[in-house]
Amino acid sequence: MKQLPGRTRPRWQQQLLSGLGVGLGLVVMGALLPIVLPVLLIAGLLAALALIPILRQLRSELEQLDQVQQKSSGRIPMDVTPWQQKLWDRWKASLKRRS
User: Fold this and answer.
1) pTM for this structure?
2) Does the CA dihedral 88-94-98-99 come out positive or negative?
3) Are residues 20 and 28 in contact, defined by beta-carbon separation less than 8 angstroms?
4) Residue 68 in contact with residue 76, Cβ under 8 Å?
5) Residue bearing the bigger pLDDT, 79 or 29
6) Tell me: the pLDDT tens digits for 53-89?
7) Distance CA 69, CA 65 (A)
8) CB 84 within 8 A of CB 77
9) Tally of CA atoms within 13 A in the half-sphere of 70 that contains its CB
């Protein structure tokens, strides 16, 4: 590929500018890490605490399902539609009722 006419920077200047950019990025990341890391750790802790009741309910539902399946030899039909799909379907149904 041919070089277009015009002034170009010497190679050492391009390398110097890219090195300065990398150095500046490292300094900014090093300065922000002590600020961002505790925030991320606290957010992770809150998310873990929020999951505790959900996981307890899931465990109890699985235990109940296991007990029911042990009592009956046949398969029990279950609605396994994800919650977001149920919500989407309900929303679409409400829109059809309005029109």
Assistant:
1) 0.44
2) positive
3) no
4) yes
5) 29
6) 999 999 999 999 888 877 776 666 778 899 999 999 9
7) 6
8) no
9) 6
